[in-house]
Amino acid sequence: MRLDRLLKQLGFYILVIVLLIFATWPFVWMFLTTFKNEHDLYNLQNIPYLFNEPPTLRHVEWLFTSTGFVRWLWNSTFISTVVVVITLAVATPAGYALARMAGRYGERLGIGMFLTYLVPPALLFIPLSPIISRLGLQDSLWALVAIYPTFTIPFCTWLMMGYFKTIPYEIEEAALIDGDSRLGALVHVVMPLTMSGMFTVVVFAFTLSLQEFVYALTFVSSTDQKTITVGVPTELIRGDIYFWGSLMAAALIAGIPTAIVYNLFLDRFLVGITGGAIK
Amino acid sequence: MGIVAKQLGIARLQRFLERSEVLGPLFMAPAILYMAAFLGLPFVLAIYFSLTNLTINNIHSGFSFVGLDNFAALFQDSIFQQALRNTLIFAIASQLLSLILGQATALVLMRNFRGKSIMRVLILLPWAVPIALGVLGWKWMYDSLYSIINWTLRALHILGPGQGPNWLGSPDLAMVSIILVHAWKAFPFAAVVFLGALTSIPQDITDAAKVDGAGFFRQMIQVNLPIIAPIVSIGLIFSTVFAFTDMSVVWLLTKGGPINSTHVLGSYAFQTGVMSGDISYGAAISLFLVPILMVAMVLTLRAMRRREL
After folding, report:
1. Of A49, A61, A237, B4, which one's alpha carbon is 20 to 30 angstroms from that of A125?
2. Distances (CA, A) of A35 to B146, B154, B182, B259, B300
């Protein structure tokens, strides 16, 4: 009986360890590669999990001084920020209208909006290119500013609709009776109550834009217009030569902060994607 | 007098604008116009392009309508058929694997143990990190010469000295490698969705099942599954659609190689439509994603409706 429980406990921890190794192995190897000497990295006699030679900051230094890394970080941040502004400006009124004013069609329209989130880039990157060049945005990060709201707006409208629905209409009505106009009531009474919802929208629009790869690969080819997700795999690989140390440094430096922010807001994201079933 | 009239006019305009029938559509308009311009229009264009012979070379000099020629050509195209097959294999295999791993992770995280919260953060990393950057880590792990996977397997004596598969070098193994990365990316999401649903099962139901003598698997399938299915379905449909339509993993790991053996619809459409400039043919390829999308949308709608009951 006791042995049985011990075995069960052992099995449990083995499972924990196996899952953890699977999830984090690439990150451990990224971390080691970032700080390893070239000579240490490419010596097959060495044990790869150890620093057989003193660790070095050479790859990180090269990344910041000799590549477009800083520029790509800036581009990604800039694009994501503008996308956040567009998303908020479009999704907030739409979410409000769907929650309060669209009546019987509101529900259907809301679901229809939600479903467009499913449309993948692979379906749209080809026909979008003549539209983008007609707008004069080819090979410019502004092309991405124009395209990214197509996936942030549906999801964020859906989220905002959910938040507006949690606010009782009576609060708004009271403000209307007090002589506030409808827009006034929205701005003074309702919006302050949805601040946390809007904050979630900001974080999601930002991180979704930051993570995007396929559109960025399609529409931007000049080094100085690239985002971090495209710059790193296209510019740090020249032909068949991979600058692994700097590649891993870049993936780690840009990837981990994004992952942490995303993690912090995971629970709210889940509420959105499961339509409020998980709280 | 004039000013008063003007103010009255403005007040009347404001009252008019604030009527629900007016303000509602006004508030919806930007969102709908935006989606129509950058999602609806391209979708219609994709269908139109697929019926022409448009390429990057004749885009200005004039292209013509060719009917279903592109689709007829697709049926003769062995790379396309391979890509279609691969899309199904990748999506189904990686989803199954990620469901199993996700379910296992969720069951682990249901228990209380030391380091649980740290484990949750670490497990979520593959999903939260930008896919292009996470896949680069795997590309390096799959390296033909310096693969850390091979080194580790040799150190554990699972492989003999000097042995080691070239993970991305042969068609079959490259498929397995791609599936593994897809599952790695997707399983944390499955895990949190399952975890959320499992914790919503009332304790007395679990207890009642135990009293009635239900074993582990019986309880999972006959008791838990019916309860969590409506909750997890939408999340899982989304992640399946992603698995069907994603091209970034393939593109970053193999670019569809070796010898076009690992293409999926997305990457093959990218190669022909964007890289080679055969716009009409690329558009025809990508349109094969539409049936998958339709199924997913119908399933999502049904899942939403079921939950409201």
Report:
1. A237
2. 16, 24, 27, 35, 46
